[in-house]
Amino acid sequence: MNGIVKKVRKCTTHVVLFYSILTACCITSILFVSYNYSFYDRPIAKVIQTTLEDTTKMADMHNNEDHLFTQRIVAIMQNGPEKGQRIHITNKYSSSGAYDQEYRIGNELFVSINPITTNTTNLTGIIIEVKRDKYVLFIAWTFIFALLIIGRKKGLFSILSFAINVLLLSFALDLYVNHFPSSLLLITSVCILLFTAISLLLVSGFNKKTYAAIVATLIGTFTSLAVAYFVIWVTSGNGLRYEEMQFLTRPYHSVFMAGLFIGSLGAIMDVAITISSSLFALYERNPHISHKALRASGMDIGKDIMGTITSILFFAYISGSIPMLILYLKNASPLGFAFSMNLSLEVARALAGGIGIVLTIPIALHTTLFFIKRKQAGL
Amino acid sequence: MNVIVVLATVLFISMTLIGGKKGVRSFISLFLNFGVLFFMLFFMMDPAVNPIVITFIASTLVGCIGLFFINKVNSKTVIAFISTMIVIGFLLFFIVFISEKLMIQGFGEEETEAIAGLSLYIGVDFMKIGASVIIISTIGAIMDVAISIASSMHEIFKHNPLISKKELVASGLSVGRDILGSDTNTLFFAFFGGYLALLLWFKDLSYSIGEIVNSKVFSSEMLLILCAGIGIALVIPIATWINAYYLIKTKERSEEL
Fold first, then answer.
1. What is the DSSP letter of A240?
2. Model confidence over A240-282: pLDDT tens digits?
3. pLDDT tens by residue, A79-135
4. Were A271 and a residue from A173, A352, A360, B217 both cysteine, which residue would form a disulfide, CB within 3.0 to 4.6 Å?
5. Does the distance separating the beta carbons of B184 and A260 come in below 8 Å?
C-alpha cells in the first residue's frame, strides 16, 4: 500500500515538474518573440496612430461592389539604425481584404524605408509584411497544451510524432533540393517508410500488432499509388489542370504524385492500425477464435471506418480551394471552368486517397491474419 | 477519358465490393457532402450574408449527413451531433479571434501569380471565409471522434449498467485518447501532402526562418493544422461529459419509474 502511494506521489511530482518546465518554456518563448526585433534584418515598425483619409465606393467590371479606403499610418521603428524614429506610411485597403489589409494601432509590420528619406527625420516607407511570429507561437502553445492536458501520454506522443515527421520531411526536401534533384518520388518513398514506422511505433509501441499495421500501411500506400499512377497513365492525365497548382518551382507531375503519396498516408495508417489492433484484441481475448470469425469482424470494422476516414480526407482537401473558387466565380468565370481549374487536383487527391483507404481494409485484414497465424504456429 | 471520372468509378466499385451496402452509402454521402459545399460556396458569394453563419449551417448539414444518414438517428448520433456542434461553435470564436490578430485572410505574396488578372475587390469578407475553410477542413475528424466516443460509451454502459459516472467518464476519455493520435495523424499527413509544393518553394527560394514564420501562407497553414488538432482534442472531454450525463440520467429516470 505504502509503495503504491509513493509511486503515485513520484508520478505526480514528475508530472508537476514536466508541466512547470513546459510553462517556463512557453513564457520565455512568448517573451522572446515579443521583443525579438533586433534578430530580424528587415526593419520592423509598430503602428501608433492611424487616420482614415478617404473612402470610395467602387464597382469592378463584374459589378461587384466594394469599398476602398486610404489610411495614413504613423509607426515607430523598432530595430536597425532608425530605431525609435517615426515613419509615415500610406495604406490602401478594401473591405473584402483579399490581398490588402486595414492596420490598427499596435500592429507590428515589416517595412521598407524609402531610401531618399533615410537620413532625414521624416521617414516614409511601404509595408511589406505583417510580423506574425508571436501569434503563430501562441497557437502552437495552445495546441501543445490542449493535446497534453486532454490526451496526456497519447497527446505527447502525437505532438512528438508530428515534430519528428516535420523535421524528417524538411531534411528530406533539403536532400532533394540540394543533392538529388531528379528523384523526388524515390526520396518520398524512403520518407514514407520512416513516417510509417515512427508514427505507428509512437502510437502503439513495439509489438506484433504495430508490425502488422506497418506492413499493411506500406502495401496499402504503394498499391494506391500504383492505382493512381495507372489511372493517370491510361487517361493520359486528361482532366487534371496542373496550371493552377500553386507554389511550383519543380516539375509539377512528380510534385503532385509525391503530395498524393504523403497525403493519403495518415488515413491509410489509421485504417491499418484500427484493424490490426482490434483483431489482435479479439485474438488475445480468445486465442482459439477461428480465422473465419476474425475475418468477418475485421470486415465489419473496416466497413464502419471506411466512410468516416474518406470524408476526413475529402474535407481536408476540398476546403482549401474555397477562397480561390469564390474569387474565380465572382470574376464571372464559367462554373465548369472555375471548378476544373481549382478542384480537379484536390478531388483527384481525395479520390485516390479514398481508394487507398478502401483497398487497405482487406490488405490490413490479411496481413494481420498472417501475423496471428504465425503466432499461433509458434505456440 | 477523364481522370476524375475513372478514379470515382474505381472508388465506387471498391467501396461496393468491400463495404457492401454500407460502402454504397459512404460513397453517396461523399456526393452529398460535395453538394453541401457547393451550396455553401454560392451563399458565400453574396456579400450581404455572413460567411460564419453559412458555415455553421453547412456544418449542421454535414453533421446530419455524416451522422444521421450513415448511422441512423439514435441517442448515440444525437449526442455525437451535439458535441460536434459545440466544438465547432467554440472553434469558430477562437479562429475568428486569432485570424484577426494574424491577418491571414485572402491570398499571400506567394500566390500573386495565381490571382493575377482577377479583380480582387469583390466585396466578400475574406477573413470570415478563411475561418470557414478551417472549420470545414476539420469537421470530418471532429465528427469521427464524437461518434466513436458515443458508441463505445453506450456499448460499455450496455454491458455494465452498474458502472459509476466517474468510471464511465474515464473510459470515454481513454477511448478518445486512442483516436486522438490516429486522427491528428490523418490530418497532419493530408496537410503535408497538400503543401509539399509550398515547402519546396520555401527551400528553393531559400527563405529564412523569419520569412517563413511571418509569411501569410505559412502562418495560415499552421493555423489550419493546429486548429484541427485543438478541435480533435476538445471534442474528447465534451463528448465524454455529455454521454456520461445522458447515460446516467436515463438510468436514474428508469430507476424512478
1. -
2. 887 767 777 778 888 888 988 899 999 999 999 999 999 998 8
3. 888 888 899 999 999 888 888 888 989 899 999 888 888 777 788 888 988 999 999
4. A360
5. no
Average pLDDT, chain A: 88
Spell out a b/e string for A317-326, using b for 16 or more CB atoms within 10 Å of the CB, else e. Answer: bbbbbbbbbb
Q: How many residues belong to chain A? A: 379
Q: What's the ipTM?
A: 0.91
Radius of gyration of chain B (CA): 21
Of B145, B157, B146, which Cα lies nearest the Cα of B251? Answer: B157
Contacts 24+ apart (CB under 8 A), A89-95: A89/A45, A89/A124, A89/A125, A89/A126, A89/A127, A90/A53, A91/A127, A92/A68, A93/A68, A93/A69, A94/A66, A94/A67, A94/A68, A94/A69, A94/B120, A94/B121, A95/A66, A95/A67, A95/A69, A95/B123, A95/B125
Helix axes B196-204, A252-285, angle to 10 degrees: 130
Grid cell of B23 as nine digits? 460502402
Cell readout for B237 is 472531454
The answer to whether B10 contacts A355, with C-beta atoms less than 8 Å apart, is yes
What tens digit of pLDDT does each residue of A67-86 get?
899 999 999 999 888 888 89
3-state helix, strand, coil in chain A (%, to 5): 65, 15, 20
Q: What is the distance in angstroms between the Cα of B83 and the nearest Cα belonging to chain A?
A: 16
Nine cell digits for residue A326: 469564390
Q: In the numeric block, which cell numbers belong to residue A269? A: 495508417
Phi and psi at residue A70, to the nearest 5° = -120, 130
Closest CA to B192 of A338, A226, A353, A324: A353
pLDDT tens, residue by residue, A324-349: 899 999 898 898 888 888 888 889 99
How many CB atoms are located within 10 Å of the residue A179 CB?
A: 9
For cell 490490413, the residue is: A364
Question: Which among A143, A174, A348 has the least Cβ separation from residue B3?
Answer: A348
Residue A104 has φ and ψ, to the nearest 5°, of: -120, 170
Q: 507561437: which residue's cell?
A: A137
Paired sense of beta strands A108-113 and A44-59, if any: antiparallel
The partner residue sitting opposite B204, judged by closest CB among A139, A177, A349, is: A177
